[in-house]
Amino acid sequence: MLGTSVTWGDITFMMTGAGLTLAITFWAMLGGTLLGIVFGLIRSHSPWYVNYPMGAVLDVLRSVPLLIQFILFNSFQSIAGWGMNPFVVGCVVLAAYTSAFCTEIVRGGIQAVPVTTRRAARSLGMNWAQDMAYIVLPLGTRVMLPSWIGLTLGVMKDTALVYAIGVIELLRSSQIIITRKPHEALLILAIAGLIYFIVSFPVSRLGAHLEKKWREND
Amino acid sequence: MIEIDNVRKSFDSFEVLKGVSMAVEKGEVVSVIGGSGSGKSTMLMCINGLEPINAGKITVDGTEVHAKGTDLNKLRRNIGIVFQQWNAFPHLTVLENTTLALRKVLGKSKAEADEIAKKQLNHVGLGDKLKVYPGKLSGGQQQRMAIARALAMEPKYMLFDEVTSALDPQLVGEVLDTMRLLAKEGMTMIVVTHEMGFAREVSNRVAFFKDGLIHEIGSPSQLFESPERPETAAFLQSVL
Fold this sequence. Notes:
CATH class of chain B: Alpha Beta
Order of helices and strands of chain B: EEEHEEHEHHHEHEHEEHH
Order of helices and strands of chain A: HHHHHHHH
GO molecular function (chain B): ABC-type amino acid transporter activity; ATP binding; ATP hydrolysis activity
Largest sheet of chain A: none
Mean pLDDT of chain A: 90
Low-confidence stretches of chain A: none
Keywords (chain B): Amino-acid transport, ATP-binding, Cell membrane, Membrane, Nucleotide-binding, Transport
CATH class of chain A: Mainly Alpha
InterPro entries (chain B): AAA+_ATPase, ABC_ATPase_HisP-typ, ABC_transporter-like_ATP-bd, ABC_transporter-like_CS, MetN_ABC_transporter-like, P-loop_NTPase
Oligomer: heterodimer
Protein name (chain B): Amino acid ABC transporter ATP-binding protein, PAAT family (TC 3.A.1.3.-)
Pfam family, one (chain B): ABC_tran
Number of domains of chain B: 1
């Protein structure tokens, strides 16, 4: 291909890896965001004796390097005999890690909604859940979105670390090709980089588009 | 009927209400005047249960607001409140702002809610702004929207918390006109205000608040022309 020894077969191999990268990112963001919303709601409405222990657990998830979390959890689940496949382990660990960041994003978003606006909602007879669903979360989302987009892009790159538990995603598949064709290393890495970019670009454009649209109404 | 009986309320160690009592009859317009920080606004927040109280009792049509089993969400449907900082929902259009509670709280269909909201928005002169977002409105328009939003729930009582204080002077008139119209239609209203002319013209009774207490309450002519208490006289002297 293009006068190099990189074949379509190699590209297909990398695309398969890219598919796994996307799949892990998707499940990690879905799980992490849902958990993050629940944890964020709990954290912004709980007394200290709930908040402290919860904050500590989330701090651990945020500060222990992801690579170590993958390996520890993978070893734990195989000793416990859960028999999870590496892909599932990757998704679970990354979702938990994502949820720790997402919790703080959600908490910040909720706190950014003025108390007076929420009082207006309650004064119209809306209950707590209605206030949350129709006022706080939609308004908070405007504050949360930029950080959430950043988190998504970060998580997509963090998926590369699942190689440690044997999942062959985009970066790992590139490395495998490079070990076979070391003289094409630069080209292969460039292709891998391009694929990451092609996947990330629409996400960040979507974020910018939404931010602009919301700002126009203010 | 709203009955406030010896209500006390503190924020931390600071006592804002020190035993406030008053009653507002159906169809009455009562204005509440007094300096900033005298507890006027806090009293309004207590009436619909947005603030808890430390002692005393508030009843609205026989329902004790701060009793344990009281369904505050249900009670609040009967009590509309408009705030100093209008508090529009910025992510919703004027029409959506007004229909949200109609649909979610009262369970009305979109068509029904739209009809009620349009009627109320026309009433306050915003019939041509239905699809506009609050950010594009002036303060006076946002405040009139907030009034329409509260009225759409068909409350029996309307509470106004210094609704013109945050407005540019030239916008005050349009909001006061809307309130005048309401008073004329027989709405029961408690109006916390710094607009003495308005209080005098529209109210059945005026209450003077100072340091967490009602010092004097009476007809506008009595209170403004021959106040009984020296505190009232001194306050009027300072603002008129």
